[in-house]
Design goal:
By secondary structure, the protein is an alpha/beta fold. The protein contains 4 helices and 4 strands; from the N terminus they run E-E-H-E-H-E-H-H. Strand 2, helix 1 and strand 3 form a beta-alpha-beta unit.
Length: about 120
Amino acid sequence: FVSIHCNSNSSPGSASGIETYYHMDEPSPKALAYAIHEAICSQAKMPDRRARSDRSLYASGLGVLRRLSGSGIPGVLIECGYVNHPSDRSKLVSADYRAKLAEGIVKALKAYIEGTPLE
């Protein structure tokens, strides 16, 4: 399960980059999150704001990922950039940037499913 989002915060222009979240510390989603995060940061050339547990945001994690807990379905949430940061926003509205994100996600999913490292 891959949930794709655009980020924002209360201080426009103060944060930039890509963040990827997995639920709690479950190993399967964590591995998927790191694979996707590495691939999209490499493809998209955006600041790396890390892949991390959703517990860094909320004690019980993100609802969209929490619902997958115990299901055996690995899930990640990707924040592709900040809509309230001028540089990020200009990339987010670019078809080329969105294509690079998609390529990175597909590349990482393929590697994850096949059990091969990213090249």
